[in-house]
Amino acid sequence: MSKKVVPVAAGILWKDDKVLACQRDAEGNAGKWEFPGGRVEAGETAEQALRRELSEELDLSVSTCWPYDKVEMDYPDFRLSMDLFVCPLAAGTEPEPRVHSALRWLSQSELLDVDWLPADLVVARSLGQFWDAAFFAETL
Q1: How many domains does the structure of the chain reveal?
Q2: What is residue 59's predicted lDDT score, i.e. its pLDDT?
Q3: Which of 116, 138, 122, 25 has the alpha carbon at shortest distance from 69?
Q4: Can you say how many angstroms the Cα of residue 124 is from the centroid of all Cα atoms in its chain?
Q5: Over the range 40-54, which residues count as b (16 or more CB within 10 Å of their CB) and which as e?
Q6: Residue among 91, 11, 19, 111 at smallest CA distance from 56
Q7: pLDDT in tens, 81-111
Q8: Whole-number mean pLDDT of the chain?
Q9: CA distance 135 to 100
Q10: Which residues of the chain have pLDDT under 50?
């Protein structure tokens, strides 16, 4: 029997050459770190879901998002399908944690300093290798 696919969208929020990591406060993964985002609801695109989740979780709106990658991962009870977007933040923009216990801005060399959820670890490792390419459009 195939597992239920759970579509989610996550943002790689980028500012001052660092990305935002969010520590989960609730559910079975409390204490683990993730890129902010959440489930894609019926009738939403992944980008729409990300914008909604950023507003709900971090009281944040972003003007620009571009696709970065898609990560598919099997968990015991479901298959995660996570669309990722790079979202540069404007100067002076600060996220406000509403559902996370902590926020941390990580430089390229700090990406593996937190205990990521498995799918987010895949993204963190990718960013470590492709840092300049991931943010190249912003530096033009």
Answers
A1: 1
A2: 94
A3: 122
A4: 10
A5: beeebebbebbbbbb
A6: 11
A7: 999 999 998 778 899 989 899 999 999 999 9
A8: 91
A9: 25
A10: 138-140
What CATH number is associated with residue 110? 3.90.79.10
Q: Which two tokens mark 49?
A: 């879901």
Dihedral sign computed on CA atoms, order 36, 23, 78, 129: positive
Task: Answer whether residue 59 is part of any domain.
Answer: yes
Q: Which residues constitute the domain of residue 56?
A: 4-134
Residues 82 and 10: beta-carbon distance below 8 Å:
yes
Residue 79 lies in a domain: yes
Confirm whether 140 is domain-assigned.
Answer: no
Name residues whose C-beta falls within 8 Å of residue 95's C-beta, 6 or more positions apart in sequence: 13, 20, 36, 54, 58, 59, 60, 89, 103
